[in-house]
Amino acid sequence: MFTIIIATHDRPLLLIRTLESLIAQTCQDFNVIVVSDTAGYLPPYQQLSQLDGRFDYVIRRSGKGGPAASRNLGLAIAEGEYILFLDDDDTFRPGHLAALKARLLRDKPELLFCDFQVQNEDRAVHPPTALSTQSISIADVSDDSVYVRNRIPNSCVAYRRDVLDGVRNETELILYEDWDFLLAAMQGRRLAHLATDGVVIHKSQATAPENMRRGNSQDDKIVEVMLQLYRKHPAPNMATRLARQALLSSAGVVLDLAYF
User: Fold this and answer.
1) Contact yes or no for 182/157 (Cβ under 8 A)
2) What is the rounded distance in angstroms from the CA atom of residue 250 to the CA atom of residue 79?
3) DSSP 128
4) Do residue 235 and residue 175 come from a single domain?
5) Do 164 and 223 lie in a common domain?
6) Are residues 159 and 172 in the same domain?
7) Based on the domain organization, do 191 and 225 belong to the same domain?
8) Domain membership of residue 255 as a residue range
9) Do residues 212 and 173 share a domain?
């Protein structure tokens, strides 16, 4: 049913927690592909042994670092009916895959997204200490709104595999590659929503060392990349163009409608 692709980069203890959340799934109709972009990666053999028969590949790849290339490598060998991306510091609650499967079997939607929880935590200790948890509903996200800004975390989308024919992560983007990938997959397709919050997005303090990664240290590039994506993925209608213009205007960036 599912292929779950996990791109990882030097976070072995968090990756173990991610894999343990898959071991605990009440639905075991999945296989796992783990791709690391560092040569020194050591697979978590204890956890992988508990996924016996459900992990296809553990890959140490060479080349440019970053999750986009790792996800592309996973996509090249994925065989599940639906593809999920799971970040190496996030988790699924035990019933998440079962809830997804029950919904997907109804009418085989092309793109299914769900709600999620945000868990703020202290990662200075192991295992991390949970500080707060909040359930987030994104049921109001529409196809058009994704063309303005993306509120759907990468781990919250189930892609029917045929939808991803020819769709790959852009390795040259300095941030927002998840948003770009989703927009590329949405061409001519519709999003469906499932009201379940089985995805847990784990966050640590903004100043923690693990947060000073590529995507979190490029705040000065946000507008530049947004305009790049707006050009690459034209707005489907005038209302969306106006919404794009209004969003940037609210941030103090006033541009002619021609940019949107």
Assistant:
1) yes
2) 43
3) P
4) no
5) no
6) yes
7) no
8) 218-260
9) yes
Please tell me the pTM assigned to this model.
Answer: 0.90
The two three-digit tokens of residue 13, written as one number: 């203890």
Q: Do both 124 and 159 map to the same domain?
A: yes
Tokens describing residue 154: 């990468």
Name the residue among 54, 60, 15 with its Cα closest to residue 35.
60
Q: Which two tokens stand for residue 38?
A: 């560092």
243 and 189 co-located in one domain: no
Give, for all 260 residues of the chain, the pLDDT tens digit.
999 999 998 888 899 999 999 999 999 999 999 998 876 666 676 777 777 766 655 665 556 668 999 999 999 999 999 999 999 999 999 999 999 999 999 999 999 999 999 999 999 988 899 999 999 999 999 999 999 999 999 999 999 999 999 999 999 998 999 999 999 999 999 999 999 999 999 998 755 555 444 445 567 889 999 999 999 999 999 999 999 999 999 999 999 999 89
Same domain? 76 vs 109? yes
Kindly write down the DSSP assignment for every residue of 93-119, as one continuous string: -TTHHHHHHHHHHHH--SEEEEEEEEE
